[in-house]
Amino acid sequence: MSGAGARGARAPGARARRAARWAWVGVRAWRNLPATALAVTWARAHGATVSVGPDLLVECAGMRPGSYARGGTTVGNAWLHGGLGGEQRRRHEARHADQYALLGTTAFVALYAVNALVTRNEPHRNVFERWAGLADGGYPTGRTRTASRATSSSV
């Protein structure tokens, strides 16, 4: 098949993938709602400006230093940071929101903490940071980790 017929044959699959993605965005937001509400409350109390993206990830930007871990922290569907921003970091933090939703808040926090202990909190060794995408999170992908380059975390 060629021409418009070939493009039309692919379109239903693309529509189904988009529909599935949007369904997941809604499920993720619902599953993460309790943790997200607590995180947004914490963020507002620490000076954050809150905005909700089309992926329902709540960005809490401009927080005071010391009120979040590393360069930024994701709790549920809330991404808390001082001013990192950017699409790559948003993609990384959205993957952490996926991890929260898939595992549940308690299990994710416990497993992330154990993994951080086992890996000496080195992002390039942490399975959750790797799954979220080291480069998107601003992490070096090698063995060396410096405080200025470690820019994002969860929990």
Structural notes for this entry:
There is one protein chain. With 155 residues, this protein is of the alpha/beta class. The chain has one domain. The protein is built from 5 helices and 5 strands. A 5-stranded mixed β-sheet has the order 1-2-4-3-5, sandwiched between helices. A hairpin with a 2-residue loop joins strand 3 (72-75) and strand 4.
Tell me the major beta sheet. Answer: 5 strands, mixed
**Class based on secondary structure composition and strand pairing:** alpha/beta
Which term fits the overall shape? globular
User: Any low-confidence stretches, pLDDT <50, length ≥5?
Assistant: 145-151
Number of strands: 5
Between the first and last Cα atoms, what is the distance in angstroms?
50 Å
What amount of the residues lies in strands? 5-15%
Q: Into which percent range does the helicity of residues fall?
A: 40-55%
Instruction: Give the domain tally.
Output: 1
Return the string of H and E elements. HHEEEEHHHE
Radius of gyration: 17 Å
**What is the count of DSSP helices, taking H or I runs of 4+ residues?**
5
**Strands side by side in the biggest sheet:** 1-2-4-3-5
- Output mean pLDDT: 88
